Amino acid sequence: MDHVNPSHRYRTVIVSDAHLGTPDARGEYLLHFLESIDCDNLVLNGDLLDVWNMQRRRWRGSPATTRLFQLLLRLAATGAEVVYVPGNHDECFRDYVGQSFAGVGLYRQWRHVLSDGRTALILHGDEFDGAMSSTPLARLAGNLGYELLLRFDRLSRRLRHRLGRGHWSLCRYVKSRIPGALGYIGQFEQAAVAHGATEGVDVMICGHIHHANLFEQDGVTYANSGDWVEHCTALVEHHDGRLEILDWAAVADEKAHGPIGSPAEANDASDRAAACG
Known about the structure:
Elements: E1 9-15, H1 27-36, E2 38-44, H2 51-56, H3 63-77, E3 81-84, E4 100-101, E5 104-106, E6 110-113, E7 119-122, H4 136-162, H5 170-175, H6 179-199, E8 203-206, E9 213-217, E10 220-224, E11 233-237, E12 243-247, H7 263-272, E13 274-276
Parallel strand pairs: 1-2, 2-3, 3-5, 7-8, 8-10
Antiparallel strand pairs: 1-11, 4-5, 6-7, 9-10, 11-12, 12-13
């Protein structure tokens, strides 16, 4: 894309957990992000669609969602390698791994060699749910509590929009202060690092838990691309192999012209993103 700012050109872009089809999806942010960047490889690491939600209640579409799918197909048709790794909320597509649709390849997991020679294993992350120390009752209570929290988050979002405030996630704020949620995240990250060591890879990349992070432990770099419900984050690989988490919500400006700010704000957000070599 010739109009893309050079600072937004990447070798690989990884996004996860858009949960399109739900009232909580931030499809407009994801669309703006993908329209604003250029990449050689695009990995959709699970829960792009929330089929679970579609089975329980009606599909919540939007013009941004339609344009998003059109953009993904256009990227695949114009030379970018687009990889789809289904997650637990769109696990029905796991029946089609190994196939390609309109240039989009489906994989159960994807092995990728970074430009600096490091090997990366990319999978959604629900594979590690069994390693989490919680009872079925606790998981049910957690799921119900999360759905209730999302409802309050939607109300908060509408109120902030009317007041001309930018993006802020009530879910993110509350979860960061619940010891049980933080403990779950820690357990997940340790399970992922251990799996990466077992698989003999240098980098372990996941989604699933809606918590972007990037660190190195025991010779394995752990990376999580986050989500597009609470945080609007992505993981990118620069052309030198450096990994970076982009917080795209930092460009949001809901004061006058919708949720997305100016190109200058996008550049500022890129400069503020966390990075790890």
